[in-house]
Design a protein that fits this description.
The protein is mostly beta strands and 108 residues long. Helices cover 0% and strands 43% of the residues. The chain starts with 7 loop residues before the first strand and ends in a 14-residue tail after the last strand. The structure holds zinc ion (ZN). The site of zinc ion has 8 residues, from loops.
Amino acid sequence: MKILKGDNVKVLIGKDKGREGLVVKSMPKVGKIVIKGLNLFKKHIKPSQGRPGSIIEKERSLTVSKVALICPSCKKTVRVAYQIDKSGEKSRICRKCKSVLDTPVVKK
Ligand SMILES: [Zn+2]
């Protein structure tokens, strides 16, 4: 997956379109991410054991194809490319400014 935890992304589709946020969770197996403070939904907590019920807002996961990565160097929404260095480590690079987006991607 090209978008990982710790990335800044911009939402392209949906009610939060155009908003930006930090990825706090990535779920490569299902192709989804959670962005801090975005795509919120209200969750009703039932009263239990003397506690009153309440409503909290939680982030709902978003399909990764609905967001674009914001490059930390050129500050634009960019497409990600991969490069593999001499030691075989895979890194993500920005297709626009060619800067490395992170330390090598963790292998499975
Ligand atoms: Zn860039």
